[in-house]
Amino acid sequence: PRDELRERAQRARKVDRRRRYSDEQAQRALALIAEGKTAKEAAFAVGATPDAVHKWLKRAGQTPIAGTRRF
After folding, report:
1. Fewer Cβ within 10 Å of end Cβ, the chain: N or C?
2. Helices and strands counted in the chain (H then E)
3. Quick one: pLDDT at residue 35?
4. pLDDT digits over 43-53, tens only?
5. Does an H or E element contain 25, and which?
6. Interior CA angle at 32 toward 31 and 38, to 5°?
């Protein structure tokens, strides 16, 4: 049983845990930002994280529109 658990754990480590998004999601988010939405709003609209949207913006060479900061 212990060897079986060890083998299962090794297989689980090999799984790529990164979240994948479709090209359509990225394009739609970039289009929303071009229309004036913030990265956070675009992320929510396409079902992605704001970090992913910022990464897509950086890759596309666009600058994000800053949202309202509340302290």
Report:
1. C
2. 4, 0
3. 92
4. 999 999 999 99
5. helix 23-34
6. 130
